[in-house]
Write a structure and sequence with these properties.
alpha/beta; four-stranded antiparallel sheet; 24% strand; globular; binds adenosine-5'-diphosphate
Length: 239
């Protein structure tokens, strides 16, 4: 696992004002940080700037001594493998099985066609089974992704991200379209898995009560700036 430091991270899209303004913060190894704020506050922009799905306009993204913002394309591709991404649950490849979706995490990109899947070594297959067992989907390995429920799909998303053996997890609205009970189950699973591995994570949660229930640290964004950074108890006092 790694430590993440953001220094003066700023993003101005061509069409507008700064979506992210001068954000500086550090996430130590093993810390799970919940990112909250109203729609348009810059949460997705921040998550996407960290792995450069969005190009930052200024600032640094330092993952254990490497500034990702300064890297050229090929080195960025290598360094990105250190960062696992979990999106809303519709990000699975529908026509592939659960097992194939998890294995695609070993590739570092999402294959769109079955024929793109290489033959995986037995160690990859074993890892994928261990992860499916951990997320409680051992008996679903051969089902197609499009046959799963929302909660199951998100479990596959978690297993796929872990198959990459990441040093940092970025999680963008993991429970956006799940019911409250399933949302809590998924959030609890994520937290347990990160804690087991000492894996730091940034979780974009639009649901504030859910963030308060599960996060040790909450960062609040508003209009691209950090307006709160502390434990959930202090959020109550600030509000
Ligand atoms: P959040 O995730 O907190 O809802 P976003 O990061 O999606 O916030 O958006 C922050 C601001 O940046 C908003 O004003 C949004 O309209 C704007 N924005 C987001 N993506 C783009 C884009 N691709 N091009 C232009 N503006 C964008
Ligand atoms: P979220 O707030 O969940 O990130 P949005 O509905 O704000 O989602 O945005 C959906 C998509 O549109 C995102 O990819 C975002 O980057 C993009 N987007 C948001 N605002 C703008 C904008 N003003 N101009 C262009 N693209 C935008």
């Amino acid at each position: 696992a790694a430590m993440l430091h953001l220094e003066g991270l700023t993003k101005t899209y061509k069409t507008g004002d700064a979506a992210l303004s001068d954000v500086t913060l550090t996430i130590p190894k093993g810390q799970i940080m919940g990112l909250i704020g109203p729609s348009g506050a810059g949460k997705s922009t921040m998550i996407r700037c960290i792995n450069r799905l969005v190009e930052p306009s200024a600032g640094q993204v330092v993952l254990s001594d490497v500034d990702l913002v300064r890297l050229g394309k090929s080195e960025l591709r290598r360094q990105r493998r250190r960062i696992g991404m979990i999106f809303q649950e519709y990000s699975l490849v529908e026509r592939l099985t659960v097992m194939e979706n998890v294995l695609s995490g070993r590739l570092g990109y999402v294959p769109f066609w079955r024929s793109f899947l290489r033959k995986y070594p037995p160690s990859d297959i074993q890892l994928a089974y261990r992860l499916l067992d951990r997320v409680g989907l051992m008996d679903q390995a051969d089902k197609r992704a499009d046959a799963l429920s929302g909660g199951q799909r998100q479990r596959v998303g978690i297993a796929r991200a872990l198959a990459q053996e990441p040093e940092l997890l970025l999680v963008d609205e993991p429970t956006a379209s799940l019911d409250p009970k399933t949302s809590r189950q998924i959030m609890r699973l994520l937290i347990e898995i990160c804690a087991e591995r000492g894996l730091p994570a940034i979780i974009n949660i639009h649901d504030v009560p859910l963030a308060q229930q599960f996060m040790q640290r909450i960062v609040g964004l508003r209009a691209g700036r950090v307006v709160f950074d502390g434990p959930p108890e202090q959020l109550n006092e600030a509000a």
